[in-house]
Design a protein that fits this description.
Length: 299
């Protein structure tokens, strides 16, 4: 004799609620179906589980004896299901993430913390890489995910690319720069602009490169040092520039022609082999959630 777990769950629900209607609602079934399931279980066991002489079902002595075991069976079934679900979540044992140096560390940190709530068993490897290395390592399956600023859409093929959020940008210069705090485009154009390689290659380059003389720098650390040394001004993600502004290493430039703060899209690039995995989708959703929490413009 093989007993149905659903019938045992019906028995436990009726015993716990003392009411067929409430038990049916708890299990998402109609009243008559639930009554039939309990009656069928009694027939299979050859035991009356409930006394039905009154308005409400009352456990018989055998029913009381079996209830504890039935509860443990249901709890074990729930634990089994949860364990199987966790295994499916963590079926991808290691997530390898390539992050552009222009992506704010706080966004990555909070996204990882949020993502770990649903995938605590998945190991994470994070690499700080330039955009070309992210592209190459995705193609060779050394990376699962790339978090970068949006480049020319055609450059992502055959990776799967999705927009996540907008990253506000700040115009910055050395505290010793001759440029005034309130500056116009003509004044900016007369001074050397230092631009990070990733921004120079992005689809937004035409909007951000305004200097007549532009020098492209591949290292973020070197770029900031050069700006602080008054070797030129630059455009950096607001969240990346903020610590340097607070420490007095850089100062903000207020560009007269700007109606609103410029933004650059943040994109998630996925290797084709992992694009459909739940663990990857969960990480993507975590980045979107945390970008909203940090006030990044998603418009």
């Amino acid at each position: 004799m093989k007993l149905s777990l659903s019938k045992i769950e019906a028995f436990v629900a009726v015993a716990q609620t003392g009411n067929i209607t409430l038990a049916a609602k708890r299990l998402g079934k109609d009243r008559s179906t639930l009554s039939q399931m309990v009656a069928a279980l009694e027939d299979e066991l050859g035991i009356a589980l409930f006394e039905r002489s009154g308005k409400m079902p009352v456990l018989t002595e055998p029913g009381q004896s079996l209830l504890g075991r039935a509860r443990r069976l249901c709890a074990e079934a729930d634990a089994f299901q949860e364990y199987a679900l966790q295994m499916s979540r963590d079926a991808h044992p290691t997530l390898t993430l390539g992050v552009s140096p222009l992506i704010p560390a706080r966004l990555v940190t909070q996204a990882v913390r949020h993502w770990r709530q649903s995938h605590p068993g998945t190991q994470l490897e994070v690499r700080s890489l330039d955009i070309d290395s992210i592209r190459q390592q995705l193609l060779t399956q050394q990376l699962d995910v790339g978090l970068t600023l949006n480049s020319n859409p055609t450059s992502t093929f055959p990776m799967v690319a999705s927009y996540l959020a907008n990253l506000p940008m700040a115009f910055v210069a050395s505290v010793d720069a001759s440029l005034p705090i309130r500056v116009d485009a003509r004044q900016l154009a007369q001074v050397r602009q230092l631009c990070h390689q990733e921004l120079a290659d992005s689809a937004q380059a035409s909007l951000l490169l305004v200097g007549r003389s532009v020098e492209v720098i591949g290292s973020l650390e070197l770029l900031v040092e050069m700006v602080a040394a008054d070797l030129g001004w630059s455009v950096l993600p607001e969240a990346v520039a903020q610590p340097y502004l607070e420490r007095g290493q850089l100062r903000r430039l207020d560009v007269q022609e700007l109606v609103r703060q410029p933004v650059v899209p943040v994109s998630l690039w996925l290797a084709p082999s992992v694009a459909e995995l739940p663990v990857i989708d969960a990480f993507s959703q975590s980045v979107v959630h945390c970008a909203e929490q940090l006030g990044l413009d998603g418009g």
